[in-house]
Design brief:
The protein has helices spanning 49-76, 86-110, 112-119, 139-146, 152-155, 157-182, 188-206, 219-228, 231-234, 243-256, 266-287, 328-338, 351-354, 401-410, 419-427, 430-439, 453-465, 473-478, 488-497, 546-549, 581-589, 592-595, 614-625; strands at 3-5, 125-127, 132-134, 523-526, 558-559. The protein is mainly α and 636 residues long. Among the domains are: 24-295, Up-down Bundle (A middle domain of Talin 1), CATH 1.20.1420.20; 474-625, Cytochrome c-like domain (Cytochrome Bc1 Complex, Chain D, domain 2, Orthogonal Bundle), CATH 1.10.760. Helix 3 runs antiparallel to helix 6 (157-182) and helix 7 packs antiparallel against helix 11 (266-287). It is found in: Cell envelope.
């Protein structure tokens, strides 16, 4: 379960600058016009391949609506005086979910906002910058009314009323998808983009049980159904003997005949089926002369063939304007500033004082010391891969790394500095002036001084964005690189992580943080119910995001951090109270705060015990140890 935090905040100093496009259509309007590369036919051409795809999806949407009208809605209207036909309801519900999976590749790609109301997470969506909250809706909201045993609707009149209300809302949203789909205009390039993103979605969400938390038996059949949905559009682009057919059908067979949800070998599926399928789709697209949207700015590059490609991610997406993009001179300047105490008020502390490269940019302390001898409220997080988060800090209050830098430097407990005074001091050093000139070659035409607060912030942010490290032993193995090996225990641990232990439904693959795939544009937060210390039944009092928004669902909500380099970043949790991974794994195994008997009214972590054995947890730790990649982190 999730608290989705849609973050549209921008750097206040940059509000007048033009914004950049994102990862495909992120609103529900017509698809964006294609870029300058060849994109093939369009839906505007009668009889074209995109036009035929559009007609097929229209038929599938009509089928989904008919299922709701004829099979799901009627039993939902059963009078309260009569027994509810629960078996019929569940069968109809499963049919509707499978039917939605037929349209998911295109609904999620072209109409993500409405799709969230059809099959989004069953928690309110929060627009933090406006402190607004929107009620959850859709299939995942209906699921807990029907599952598990005993089903709430079987004995609870209020639940029966809620079921009918939610089914009616679901019908309304599917009808909205139909109307929006009629307005879509797109090209061959959009079709291939949507199909490849669906393969990524299956890996990151589908096989993990993200949208089937209470009915895991449906997880793999639904993943198979959505891969089956790729066949109809691909038939327009492939010869009957094309090898891609064999790869797609082999992937479907792997999902169709597993032992069960818990025993499914997800590592084998990703390596032998999903990754080759992604590569084959991209290769066929290029064979047809249909270029991917390589010039479009996205956090996940459009030309990436698999979810785990070494160069798949672009942290510059999270800047607000091209003039702030990373270049080698900025990185070098930012590295120098990062280690220079000139940015602090008393000249005795640098960024590296707490974010130590030799400790994976943490400090090994539960809580860092303040300048006045106390301690900060929260644990120091790693900066490795921080560039691939849509917002910063445990409470997600900073929309960019530039904002983060300014916040820390001005904080009287952390650095108690002034960017304006620091800029003045740096402007008096010829070495720094030369570095700023190389890092910002266009600055000569700008009205502000060369060495300015925002350029200090941007240089620091560029250095942090350069700390993208996705070449761990796990990455090399899952990509199938020659000579890469993982132990059997680590492979079992990955299968638990992405399966029965449910880790990957919050710490999403491949980043293992809360940046939601496959668009990677939203950051998520969770309410875990972390105690003040291990063994206590008292909830840590830190209000988390609630302190900023005053929205009740965000009370005690904290950013879902990356698990990469977790072997080096102890102690753990926002309060730094868990000193070992074994303690953390046990906390989750017990069901978080609620499972430990702590009163957490809004916990988003499912409170059910995972029933992991000691061997299971040892295997999971073995997997987590394979996520270490600190290449080049020691400061010269």
């Amino acid at each position: 379960m999730k608290l989705r935090l849609v973050l549209f905040l921008l750097l206040p100093l940059l509000l007048t600058l033009p914004l950049l496009s994102g990862c495909g259509p992120q609103s529900d309007g017509p698809a964006a016009a294609a870029g300058p590369t060849p994109t093939g036919q369009t839906t505007e051409q009668a009889g074209s391949r995109p036009a035929r795809v559009k007609r097929r999806v229209s038929r599938d949407l009509a089928h989904l609506l008919a299922l709701i009208d004829t099979q799901l809605l009627p039993p939902s209207r059963t009078p309260h005086a009569r027994p509810l036909p629960l078996d019929s309801l569940r069968r109809a519900f499963r049919r509707c979910r499978l039917a939605y999976k037929q349209v998911e590749p295109f609904s999620e790609y072209f109409m993500p906002a409405t799709s969230r109301l059809v099959n989004g997470a069953p928690v309110p969506e929060v627009e933090a910058e406006e402190t607004k909250m929107f009620e959850a809706a859709g299939l995942q909201v209906i699921e807990p009314l029907l599952y598990p045993e005993p089903a709430p609707v079987a004995a609870d009149t209020a639940s029966r009323r809620e079921l009918l209300r939610q089914v009616v809302r679901l019908r309304r949203q599917v009808r909205a998808l139909q109307l929006l789909w009629q307005e879509q205009e797109f090209t061959d390039a959009h079709v291939f983009d949507a199909l490849r993103q669906q393969v990524f979605r299956v890996v990151a969400l589908g096989i993990t049980g993200f949208d089937t938390p209470l009915s895991p038996a449906a997880t793999l059949p639904e993943a198979e159904a959505t891969l089956a949905a790729l066949e109809a559009p691909l038939r327009l682009y492939l010869e009957p003997e094309a090898g891609l057919w064999g790869q797609l059908r082999a992937a479907r067979r792997a999902l169709r005949h597993p032992p069960d949800f818990a025993q499914f070998d997800r590592m084998d599926f990703v390596r032998r089926h999903a990754n080759p399928l992604g590569r084959a789709l991209l290769a066929r697209q290029r064979q047809l002369g249909i270029s991917p949207f390589a010039g479009e700015l996205r956090p996940f590059r459009p030309e990436a063939a698999t979810l785990f490609d070494a160069e798949a991610f672009n942290p510059d997406f999270y800047t607000s304007n091209r003039q702030w993009f990373t270049n080698p001179a900025k990185v070098a300047l930012g590295r120098q500033l990062f280690h220079d105490p000139v940015l602090s008020g008393g000249g005795g502390r640098s960024c590296a004082s707490c974010h130590q490269p030799g400790r994976a940019f943490t400090d090994g302390q539960a809580l860092s010391a303040t300048l006045t001898g106390g301690t900060l409220r929260r644990n120091t997080p790693t900066l490795l891969n921080a560039g691939m988060q849509a917002a910063q800090f445990y409470d997600l209050r900073a929309p960019t790394l530039e904002n983060q830098a300014g916040d820390v430097i001005s904080n009287h407990d952390e650095m108690h500095g002034s960017l304006e005074r620091a800029a003045g001091r740096l402007a008096g050093q010829s070495r720094y002036v030369a570095q700023f000139r190389r890092a910002f070659p266009q600055a000569a035409a700008a009205p502000e001084p060369l060495v300015s607060p925002i350029r200090i912030q941007n240089a620091l942010a560029a250095y942090e964005r350069s700390l993208l490290r996705l070449n761990s032993p796990f990455d090399r193995y899952v990509r199938g690189e020659a000579g890469a090996r993982l132990s059997p225990a680590a492979i079992r641990g990955f299968n638990l992580y992405a399966g029965r232990a449910r880790c990957a439904t919050c710490h999403f693959l491949p980043l293992t943080n809360g940046t939601a795939p496959p668009a990677f544009q939203d950051s998520e937060a969770e309410v875990l119910g972390v105690p003040v210390r291990p063994g206590s039944r008292r909830l840590d009092p830190d209000p988390g995001r609630y302190a900023l928004t005053r929205l009740p669902p965000l009370r005690h909500a904290f950013k879902t951090p990356t698990l990469r380099n977790i072997a080096l970043t102890a102690p753990y949790m926002h309060n730094g109270q868990y000193r070992t991974l074994e303690q953390v794994l046990d906390f989750y195994n017990q069901g978080g705060g609620l499972g430990l008997g702590i009163a957490v009214a809004n916990q988003t972590l499912p409170p059910n015990k995972l029933h992991l054995t000691r061997q299971d947890m040892a295997d999971m730790k073995a997997f987590l140890m394979t996520l270490t990649d600190t290449t080049g982190q020691q400061h010269p």
